[in-house]
Design goal:
With 210 residues, the protein is of the alpha/beta class. The chain has seven helices and six strands; from the N terminus they run βααβααβααβαββ. The chain has helices spanning 15-19, 33-46, 60-65, 67-71, 101-111, 125-140, 154-165; strands spanning 3-10, 53-56, 76-78, 147-152, 182-188, 193-201. β5 and β6 form a beta hairpin. The radius of gyration is 17 Å and the shape is globular.
Length: 210
């Protein structure tokens, strides 16, 4: 095996996403009607892709986003290391500039390089990277899994992409994402490096109304 191809998706929409409420790893929300439609559209486009394995976080919104692939019999493994960042006391809230100034201040400091900082009661981006390293080392070390599908979360994907492309985690916001978007990645066993082949693809969502 010279390389591994990874289809990395963000989960479909939940009501928390729709309302701008922070979820994080502590909110195990379900997909809403639109989220299920997004998942169905992604499946319609990629149903014939010969995935060897499906990996998800431990949260049900990722499981629901790839449920049709799992029903097809593709092996599925849950890796909690792929969970969304913990937003601590902000989870379940819709942050506003007045009452949640600490939240916005931490996000601003992340961009300036203070990625060791965490939300109150939550995780820092550097905390997330530590567990993502373990999860992706597992994924990379699996033989006979040349093409895999990984379902994760928005902020976690941004953090992961900095890890995999070896850039500072403070640059995570350069990676755009939307619900049920797709990043295509390739890992070379020769160079031991990742390459992003496609960024934030959403063309499959046009199939929702098809």
């Amino acid at each position: 095996m010279k390389s591994k191809t990874i289809y990395l998706i963000r989960h479909g929409e939940t009501d928390y996403n729709k309302q701008g409420i922070v979820q994080g790893s502590g909110i195990d929300s379900e997909l809403n009607e639109n989220g299920h439609s997004q998942a169905a559209a992604f499946y319609k486009r990629y149903a014939n892709t010969p995935f060897d394995k499906v990996y998800t976080s431990a949260l049900q919104r990722t499981h629901q986003s790839v449920a049709n692939f799992i029903k097809d019999g593709i092996p599925h493994k849950i890796l909690p290391g792929l969970n969304e960042i913990s937003w601590g006391k902000t989870e379940g809230k819709k942050p506003n500039p007045v009452e949640d100034s600490f939240y916005w201040d931490v996000i601003k400091k992340w961009k300036s390089g203070e990625t060791h900082l965490a939300m109150e009661g939550g995780e820092s981006p550097e905390d997330v990277i530590r567990r993502q390293k373990i999860a992706f080392e597992h994924i990379i070390n699996q033989d006979h899994e040349d093409l895999i599908l990984v379902a994760m979360h928005g902020r976690a994907i941004r953090i992961l992409l900095t890890l995999l492309t070896e850039i500072p985690v403070s640059e995570m916001d350069n990676f755009k994402h939307s619900n049920l978007c797709l990043y295509k990645l390739e890992y070379s066993y020769l160079t031991k490096r990742f390459k992003i082949l496609e960024h934030n693809l959403t063309d499959h969502l046009a199939l929702i109304s098809a």
